[in-house]
Amino acid sequence: MPVVAKVGDVPNMGKIQVTVDGQDLLLINLKGSMYAVEAECPHQGAPLAAALIKETYLSCPRHGYRFELKDGSCKDHPECVLKTWPVRIENGEIIVDLA
Ligand code: FES
Q1: 48 CB within 6 A, ligand 1
Q2: pLDDT band at 42 (very low <50, low <70, confident <90, very high)
Q3: Could you name the CATH architecture of 3-96?
Q4: Would you say the CB of residue 63 lies under 6 angstroms from ligand 1?
Q5: What does the pLDDT read at residue 2?
Q6: Ligand 1 contacts CB of residue 46 (under 6 A)
């Protein structure tokens, strides 16, 4: 599984975009918990690099759909699910399981 960034690269309550094996993804640090999600909104493809991080979710800047970071679900629009990947931290490095 690839190392995609260092923990210190992602500020608390912040995110960075990385490309791994041709896949654009966002790494999000929610108060010390790290999440990896796709960088494009499943609704109409807005880039989520500008999305707001709130309590437990990411809010798309285009229409405001809210995606839970833990599983990508959207309560208001269950047909839209944001892809997420399992994340592991080892020796300060972020490892994402893209399988
Ligand atoms: S494009 Fe993200 S909510 Fe519509």
Answers
A1: no
A2: very high
A3: 3-layer Sandwich (2.102)
A4: yes
A5: 85
A6: yes
